[in-house]
Write a structure and sequence with these properties.
The complex is a heterotrimer of chains A (157), B (264) and C (270). In chain A, 28% of the residues lie in helices and 32% in strands. With 157 residues, chain A is an alpha/beta fold. The longest helix of chain A has 24 residues. The N and C termini of chain A lie far apart (102 Å). The longest helix of chain B has 40 residues. Chain C has a 6-stranded mixed beta sheet, with helices on both faces. In chain C, strand 9 and strand 10 form a beta hairpin. The radius of gyration of chain C is 21 Å and the shape is globular. In chain C, 38% of the residues are buried. Classes of the chains: A alpha/beta (157), B mainly alpha (264), C alpha/beta (270).
Chain lengths: 157, 264, 270
C-alpha cells in the first residue's frame, strides 16, 4: 500500500491537534507550573472560612506552597475544619499562623501561612493552632459603625 | 368535534410510537457500528481517509471561526471588565470561556454542519443509488466498510478540532486584547495560567469534545443510513442531522457541565 | 450429485408488510443457461432476485441455491454464497468515491489476499472483457450510462461467479448499448460456464439472447417457455406483452366508473 498525500494531510492534522492540546495544557493552563511533588497534610480550625473553597491555594509570602483538600464543619467545636496539602519541600515551624486572606479586593480567598519562630517543624497530620478567620464584610461594617458611634459619644462627653 | 380530537390524539400517539421505534432502531444501529469496528482499525487506511474528510477539510472553518470568536471575546470581555478595573483578567476570561465551553461546543456545531451533513448526504446517496445494496450482494458488510470508519474518523477528529479552536481562539483574544487594545501581556498570560487548571478545565473540555464527536457522528451516520432513497429524503435527512446534532450537543453540554463543574 | 438446476424456487410466498408479493411461486433455473424473468413493474421480479441473494427470506416455501436452502444459512453461509454470485444493479451502483479500477478491484481486495500486481492484471482482464480497459482511471461520474453498466458488469465478474443476476440491464440505454450489453451477457455466460438470470421488460433483446423465459404476474408464474414458444404463444397476457398491445388482459383504462358519468353527459340528456 503506497503513501498518498492524503496521509500527509491527516498526519499534519493530527499533529496540529495534539500540538494545540499541548499549548492549551502548558501555556494556557497550569500544567507546567503544577508540581506533582510529594505533599504532607496539615489541618486547622477557623471561626469563619468566608468564601474559601476546596482546591484554593495555600500561600506563604505570596508563593503557592499547597492546596486546600477538604473543608468540613465540626459539630463539636462548631468551627470549620480545613485540611490542606503542603509541598514536602517546605517545612513550617509549629507556631505558624494560618490566615484566610483575599487576593485583590474582590478576588478569591486563600490560606496564608505566616511562619513563627519555633525550632520544631509541623509534621504530617499536625494541627495549626493559631488561626485567623476570614474577614466578613458585614462584621467589618458593624465594627466600623460601632467604633464611630463610640467615638461620637466619647466626644460629646 | 370529538372526531377531530380523536384523530389528532391518534396522530400524536402514532408519531410518538414512530419516534420511539426509530430511536430503538438507531440504538441498534449504533451498537452494530461499534461491533463492526474491527475493520476500521485493522485496515486503518479506511479510517485515515475519513479523518481527512471530516477533520482536515473542516480545518478552515474551525480555524477561522475560532480566531473570530477569540477576537470577539477579547473585545467584549475588555469592554465589560474595564468597568470594574479588572482588565488584567481578560486572559482568564477568554481562556476559560473557550476551553470549558465555546471550544468544544462551537467546534461541535460547526463540525455538525460541515462534516455531519456531508456524511449524511454521502451515505443517503449511496443508499439511494443502491451502492450499499451492491456492497451487501458482494458479501461486504456496509456497516463495517462504510459506516464504522466514518464513525471513528469523526470521533478522532472532533477533539482535535476543538483543541485547535480553543488554541486559536486564545490567540485571537491575545491579538485583540494585548496587541490591539494594550492589556498588559504578562498579566494576560500569567492570570490565565493561574486560573486554567489542566484537569478541571482542559481535560474536561477534551472529554466534552469526545462525547460531542460521538453524538454528532452517530446521528449523521444514522440519518444517512435511514434516509428514504429519494432526493427529497436525502435532503430532509441532511437538515435533520444538523438540527438534531446541534440540539444534542447543547443538551449534552448542559448535562456534562453540570457534572463536571459542580461547585467550582 | 449436483442437480441439473442451479436454483429452485419451491412454493415461495413473500409478503411485504401486509402486501403479498409472491404467492406460491415455482421456478427452476437450470445450470449454464441464461433465463429471463419478465412481467409488469411491481410484480415481484426484483423481490425474487433478492430472495435468491438471501437479502430477504421467504415467508414460506424454500429457495434452494446450489443445493443450499437460503433460510437455513447462517451469516457466514450467506456471505459465502454471495461471494459466488454477481448482481448487476439497474444503474450500475458503482461506488462513486472510487475510480473504475478501484471499483472492479473492490471484490478482489475485500475477499482475497492477492498481491496488487495480480489484482491489477485481473482488473484489466475483466475490463477488457467488457471492452472498457481504457477507462480504468476514470471516475463513475465521468462515464455514460451504458459504460457505467459495463464497468459494473466487470465488477460482478471479478470473482468469476457461478451465478450472475441482472436487474433491468437494458433500461434507459440506446439501441447500440443495449445490443452490446445483451451480447456481453450471452458471451460471458458461456465463456464462464456460469448461469445468468435477467429481470427485464425488454422483450426483443431478451428473446434474442436467452434460453428460457418465465412470465410473472400476480405473484405467480403465468407462462414459461423457450423464446420460440413464447413468440408463438397464444396466452392472452403473453401475447399482449410480447407484441406490446395496448389493450388486452391488462386493460388500457384504469378501472373506474363509466366515463360518461364523470362528464355528466347522462345528466344533460336527462
Amino acid at each position: 500500500m503506497e503513501r498518498t498525500t492524503l496521509d500527509l494531510w491527516v498526519g499534519a492534522f493530527v499533529v496540529a491537534g495534539i500540538a494545540a492540546l499541548l499549548v492549551l495544557a502548558f501555556k494556557v493552563g497550569n500544567l507546567g507550573t503544577f508540581n506533582h511533588n510529594e505533599t504532607y497534610t496539615l489541618w486547622a480550625e477557623f471561626e469563619n472560612i468566608g468564601g474559601l473553597k476546596v482546591r484554593a491555594p495555600v500561600k506563604s509570602a505570596g508563593v503557592v506552597v499547597g492546596r486546600v483538600s477538604d473543608i468540613q464543619f465540626d459539630n463539636q467545636t462548631f468551627r470549620a475544619k480545613v485540611t490542606f496539602h503542603v509541598d514536602k519541600r517546605y517545612q513550617f515551624p509549629k507556631d505558624t499562623f494560618a490566615k484566610i486572606l483575599t487576593s485583590g479586593l474582590l478576588g478569591e480567598q486563600y490560606i496564608g501561612l505566616d511562619p513563627g519562630g519555633d525550632p520544631d517543624n509541623l509534621a504530617d497530620g499536625d494541627k495549626i493552632a493559631r488561626t485567623q478567620s476570614a474577614v466578613v464584610l458585614e462584621n467589618l461594617i458593624g465594627q466600623f459603625l460601632y467604633s464611630k458611634a463610640a467615638e461620637g459619644n466619647g466626644e460629646k462627653k | 368535534m370529538p372526531e377531530r380530537l380523536i384523530s389528532t390524539v391518534r396522530g400524536i400517539g402514532h408519531r410518538v410510537v414512530e419516534a420511539v421505534w426509530r430511536l430503538g432502531y438507531a440504538a441498534r444501529f449504533f451498537v452494530a457500528t461499534l461491533f463492526h469496528s474491527g475493520a476500521s482499525f485493522r485496515r486503518f487506511h479506511l479510517t485515515i481517509k475519513e479523518i481527512y474528510f471530516s477533520g482536515v477539510l473542516s480545518l478552515i472553518i474551525i480555524l477561522v471561526s475560532g480566531l473570530f470568536v477569540g477576537m470577539v471575546l477579547g473585545l467584549q470581555g475588555y469592554e465589560t471588565l474595564q468597568k470594574y478595573g479588572s482588565e488584567s483578567a481578560l486572559g482568564t476570561l477568554v481562556a476559560l470561556s473557550l476551553v470549558r465551553e465555546l471550544g468544544p461546543v462551537l467546534a461541535a456545531l460547526l463540525f455538525a454542519s460541515r462534516a455531519g451533513s456531508a456524511i449524511t448526504a454521502e451515505i443517503g446517496l449511496m443508499k439511494a443509488t443502491e451502492q450499499l445494496s451492491a456492497m451487501e450482494m458482494m458479501a461486504v458488510d456496509p456497516i463495517a466498510r462504510v459506516v464504522a470508519p466514518r464513525f471513528w474518523g469523526g470521533v478522532i477528529s472532533m477533539p482535535l478540532l476543538a483543541a485547535l479552536f480553543s488554541a486559536i481562539g486564545v490567540f485571537g483574544g491575545y491579538l485583540v486584547g494585548v496587541v490591539l487594545i494594550g492589556v498588559d501581556e504578562g498579566q494576560f498570560w500569567s492570570q490565565m495560567q493561574a486560573a486554567v487548571d489542566f484537569r478541571q478545565d482542559i481535560v474536561n473540555g477534551v472529554i466534552k469534545s469526545v462525547v460531542f464527536g460521538v453524538a454528532v457522528t452517530a446521528i449523521a451516520l444514522f440519518e444517512g443510513y435511514d434516509a428514504p432513497p429519494t432526493a427529497e429524503g436525502v435532503s430532509h435527512a441532511t437538515t435533520r442531522t444538523v438540527v438534531t446534532s446541534s440540539l444534542a450537543v447543547l443538551g449534552l453540554d448542559f448535562v456534562l457541565t453540570a457534572f463536571m463543574f459542580r461547585g467550582v | 450429485m449436483a442437480s441439473e438446476n442451479l436454483i429452485e424456487i419451491r412454493d415461495v410466498n413473500f409478503t411485504y408488510d401486509v402486501r403479498p408479493v409472491l404467492k406460491g411461486i415455482n421456478m427452476n433455473i437450470p445450470r449454464g443457461k441464461v433465463v429471463a424473468i419478465m412481467g409488469l413493474s411491481g410484480c415481484g421480479k426484483t423481490t425474487l432476485l433478492r430472495l435468491i441473494g438471501a437479502q430477504i427470506l421467504p415467508t414460506s416455501g424454500q429457495v434452494v441455491v446450489d443445493g443450499q436452502v437460503t433460510s437455513a444459512l447462517d451469516r457466514e453461509g450467506v456471505f459465502a454464497l454471495r461471494r459466488r454470485m454477481g448482481m448487476l444493479f439497474q444503474f450500475g451502483a458503482l461506488f462513486t468515491d472510487m475510480t473504475v479500477f478501484d471499483n472492479v478491484a473492490f471484490p478482489l481486495r475485500e475477499h482475497t489476499r492477492l498481491p496488487e500486481s495480480l489484482i491489477r492484471d485481473l482488473v484489466m482482464m475483466k475490463l477488457h472483457a467488457v471492452g472498457l480497459h481504457a477507462v480504468w482511471n476514470m471516475r463513475p461520474a465521468e462515464l455514460s450510462g451504458g459504460m457505467a453498466r459495463r464497468v459494473a458488469l466487470a465488477r460482478c465478474l471479478a470473482l468469476d461467479p457461478m451465478l450472475i443476476m441482472y436487474d433491468e440491464p437494458f433500461t434507459g440505454l440506446d439501441p447500440i448499448s443495449m445490443s452490446v450489453i445483451g451480447n456481453l451477457v450471452r458471451r460471458l455466460n458461456d465463456a464462464l460456464g456460469a448461469t445468468s438470470i435477467i429481470v427485464t421488460h425488454d422483450v426483443q433483446e431478451s428473446l434474442r439472447i436467452v434460453d428460457y423465459i418465465y412470465f410473472m404476474a400476480d405473484g405467480v408464474v403465468i407462462a414459461q417457455g423457450t423464446p420460440e414458444e413464447i413468440r408463438h404463444s397464444d396466452t392472452p397476457f403473453v401475447h399482449q406483452f410480447v407484441h406490446g398491445e395496448i389493450d388486452g388482459p391488462m386493460a388500457f383504462h384504469y378501472p373506474a366508473a363509466p366515463y360518461g358519468a364523470d362528464l355528466e353527459v347522462e345528466a344533460a340528456h336527462a
